[in-house]
Design goal:
about 220 residues; alpha/beta
Length: about 220
């Protein structure tokens, strides 16, 4: 996000009414306004939006179509949906999009998710984060390879990954651990190398055991 400007958010509602007409508030420090783009979202190619929000009942049905449109644009996405099951959350998270569960967010969280998306951070609301972690626990309950991979990380790196997997960004992690943001980012670079991860999303999936381990 450009420091001197607030964000423009494109809202793609998949056959359901956008329930957040009062968001953003006029004094929202991060989001300036929203523009509504109806299905099949071809209008996204004509917007100058900084981030896209998909509001839908079922991401498994609606999200692939949005991703296809976004292939022609380098713009991040956030999904807002009432579904909070592991399958829905993991599939969206794998694609690098944020996920907010309806009824599990507030205006401030909505705005924070938009800002996070523009700086490459995948934001999860609390219920979405719980769903991801629960699914990972089920999938990795007997995965010795995943435990060996975790052991490659130093105690500090493990602390950072635990916080990253709860949806915190580098700056927030630094505040929690008393580290500078630069130090956290340096640690993350080392972590990605150790986990054979290409991004923060990939690292979290490997850390939680929700994606295959490539190296042990």
């Amino acid at each position: 996000m450009r420091s001197s400007e607030r964000l423009v958010v494109a809202v793609a509602s998949a056959g359901v009414t956008w329930p957040h007409e009062n968001w953003p508030a006029p004094d929202d420090p991060y989001v300036d306004r929203v523009v509504h783009v109806p299905p099949p979202y071809q209008g996204l190619a004509e917007t100058t939006a900084d981030v896209v929000v998909l509001h839908c009942e079922d991401p498994a049905v609606s999200f692939p179509g949005l991703l296809e449109v976004l292939r022609t644009r380098s713009v991040p996405a956030v999904v807002v949906s009432p579904r909070r099951d592991t399958e829905a959350v993991v599939e969206v998270f794998r694609a690098g999009a944020g996920y907010l569960v309806e009824g599990d967010r507030c205006p401030e969280m909505m705005s924070s998710a938009m800002v996070a998306a523009t700086v490459g951070h995948t934001y999860l609301s609390p219920s979405a984060c719980d769903a991801l972690r629960e699914g990972a626990r089920r999938m990795a309950a007997t995965d010795d390879a995943m435990e060996r991979l975790r052991a490659l990380l130093s105690p500090r790196e493990q602390q950072i990954m635990e916080l990253l997997s709860t949806g915190l960004g580098a700056q927030q992690i630094g505040v929690r651990l008393g580290l500078s943001e630069k130090t956290v980012r340096n640690n993350l670079s080392n972590i990605y190398a150790k986990l054979d991860a290409r991004s923060g999303t990939d690292a979290v999936l490997r850390w939680l055991g929700a994606t295959p381990v490539l190296r042990t």
